[in-house]
Amino acid sequence: MALKTGAEYIESLRALDIKVYMFGELVENPVDHPIIRPSINAVAMTYELANQPEYEDLMTATSNLTGEKVNRFTHLHQSTDDLRKKVKMLRLLGQKTATCFQRCVGMDAFNAVFSTTYEIDKKYNTNYHDNFVKYLKFVQENDLTIDGAMTDPKGNRGLAPSQQADPDLFLRIVEEREDGIVVRGAKAHQTGSINSHEHLIMPTIAMREGDEAYAVSFAVPTDADGIFMIYGRQSCDTRKLEEGADIDLGNKTFGGQEALVVFDDVFIPKDRIFLKGEVDFAGVLVERFAGYHRQSYGGCKVGVGDVLIGAAATAAEFNGAHKASHVKDKLIEMTHLNETLYCCGIACSAEGYPTEAGNYQIDLLLANVCKQNVTRFPYEITRLAEDIAGGLMVTMPSEKDFKHPKLGPICEKYFSGVEGVPTEHRMRILRLIENMTLGTAAVGYRTESMHGAGSPQAQRIMIARQSNLEHKKDLAKKIAGIK
Ligand code: SF4
Ligand code: FE
Q1: SS3 140
Q2: Closest residue by CA, ligand 1 atom 7
Q3: This prediction's pTM
Q4: pLDDT by residue (tens digit) across 447-461?
Q5: Which residues are tagged catalytic?
Q6: Same domain, 307 and 179
Q7: Which of 6, 58, 385, 393 could form an S-S bond across to 48 if both were Cys, CB 3.0 to 4.6 Å?
Q8: How far, CA to CA in Å, does 102 sit from each of 82, 142, 148, 256?
């Protein structure tokens, strides 16, 4: 099948019988729900841009499995050039949506599962790689969005999966049948889960003997029997429910999405299983997926940062502060930080290497440095954006006041900035900054920068492992003349 358009993607979601709860109620029509729809629009952009000739090179690729043109979000990276294009594609989408567009977790999962299943089969003579290749062809041919789902609820962080007081705190196999397995548990913080046609499940940590039931990877339709979701709240989310909401939303069209995905005894047929009990490969899968997703942040967060820098510069222009040297310098600092993140994303891609299975892996050390910087720099960029925006960003009356017959003219008068710039434009740009730093999009730009693709300490462990300190000590000793 050819590439789907954005509209076709949205229609395809209507065919799914997704069970999602929000505010304690089952959502009857998730696709048109005002809180959910902006997140669907963001994913739709991954389809829309792939159909635009000017973005074809970034947004599409030739499948190594079928020889057909596919959306890059379903592609297995065939070179360092592919890895770089991935980062550029994510930056582009960040620029176009100013939020998390969700589809990357699937792409990162495909690449991690592809190479890992190849190595499991080689060691254990299993059939996972064939299962996965067949599955990925299905994904590519139907241009599907997949939630690459890794994070378990984890319960007591000091205990292994099999030692937890409640055995379901890590997703596990509860029954083995001739034709497949039954799984129970949950995946938390799942980005884009309601907007995904399918889920690709992976274990969340390295595992040891005794954790066999937890070392499991498989694919399952999002509306399979036994799966349901509970929608994650975001700061200011109910503004989207306000009648005629527009300016106060900051970003009316696009948004991100996270949810708890519950697996209440879900059957998985044999040919959709990619890991079952080989505990020694759980850690490999985690490391590879996390590595790819840490690379991803050197693209998506940079694109969102581009919008935030542009918004701060515009806000300064609208109140006449743009010529002040400290404002110019703050914009330079924001740009410096943002481009440093991009450098990391590009560098870990350029230093990528082929796996045994043939697809390309990023440089793990550089990808972890990338994400470690992402846990810090967007916070500083946000701080500077708030500095430039001024207090009005958080004290401004609502758009209803601006539209009020008596209050409107007063708001217009006292919140005007530079002559010739409509006060509404000033409001719009400040609300956009608010949305990205404190509102719904702050999930993606701030807290997700901290914890998405693994919390800071997870990267520090990987940096320690990859840092080759012995080599560095040898270098120093040699120069210092120590034998
Ligand atoms: Fe994609 Fe970034 Fe969202 Fe992860 S945080 S799904 S990389 S947009
Ligand atoms: Fe993320």
Answers
A1: helix
A2: 296
A3: 0.98
A4: 999 999 999 999 999
A5: 100, 104, 191, 258, 293, 297, 300, 448
A6: no
A7: 6
A8: 19, 18, 10, 7
